[in-house]
Fold this protein.
Amino acid sequence: MEWILLVIAGFFEVAFVVNMKLSDGFKNSKYTFFTVISAALSFFLLSLALKEISVGTGYAVWTGIGAAGSVVIGMYFFQEKKSLKKLFFLSCIIFGVVGLKLFA
């Protein structure tokens, strides 16, 4: 159950970053609201997951999901640059997260 909470917290971390981008420096109140809500949910779910998962592993997985998700969303929805190097290092993050889950 803790791992499910951690993954959901990671998705809210991605939502937090995307909404922050869409808020245009917190000028758009709708996206600013969604930024605050998604950040709060992300931290809350992370705190629940860390009751059973070690802090180092939990934090690494949470930030890995947030980082990888943000890169993918940026490339596909915000037309950020795609390159083989970027995709290689993105895969390193994903393999690292999977490795932490397998050996935690």
User: Anything to note?
Assistant: DSSP finds four helices and no strands in the chain. Residues 9 and 44 are 8 Å apart (CA to CA). The two ends are 15 Å apart (CA to CA). The helical segments are 2-22, 29-49, 55-77, 84-103.
